[in-house]
Amino acid sequence: MPRFYCPQPLVQGATIALPAAVAHHARVVRLQPGAPLTLFNGEGGEWSAQLASLDKHGASAVLLAHAARESELPYAITLAQALPEAAKMDWIIEKAVELGVAAVQPLAAQRSVVKLSAERAEKRHAHWHGVIVAASEQSGRNRVTTLAPLARLHDWLGAPRAQTVLLSPRATQSLSQWAAATASCALALVVGPEGGLTLEEEQAVVVAGGLALSMGPRILRTETCALAALAMLAAHWGEV
What we know:
The protein has 240 residues and is of the alpha/beta class. The chain contains 7 helices and 12 strands. The strands form 2 sheets. Strands 6, 7, 8, 9, 10, 11 and 12 form a 7-stranded parallel beta sheet that branches.
């Protein structure tokens, strides 16, 4: 059944206008009035609905019943990802949302290949939000991952946050070892760009209270590292 994100108040029995992007998708896949839909607004649970109208001007749906279904991890993980090449960032965000991250924090690091001006950063933020919405619709999540504005690593380190874990090949303890001996908790995973964080940047994370952990004896690419870490934490801490 098609699932769509509708960021608006949803009330049983109401007929609502669907967002333009949702109406466009419905036209592309040739949905017909009467087709069943699932809608969610990010505030919890999901709604069964029925497509009421669809034409070149827009679409509407009737809200039928609410189901308090959730698929969130029982521990909130923020992925603090230093900017890699653009297509890689899309991939990382998409898969991280599928794996359950609660928030994504893009970071500007010294070795980041991509350097974004304020205007370009704003455009990429809007694009990444679209990636998050699409991944939420596809993966069955009813909460939308928070996307923070791009920040410099050192600026982000100065803000209050959960337990920070720096994924580094220089670390002597592995994430797997640490997770096996630690109760599940909210945390921020810091991942470097292509080429990794510099030694000075890693030291800054540790000085700010971060714990440096490795992903094992092999060096992973930036687009592999966070996803492998999320899967590893789920294996140790569970999904429910």
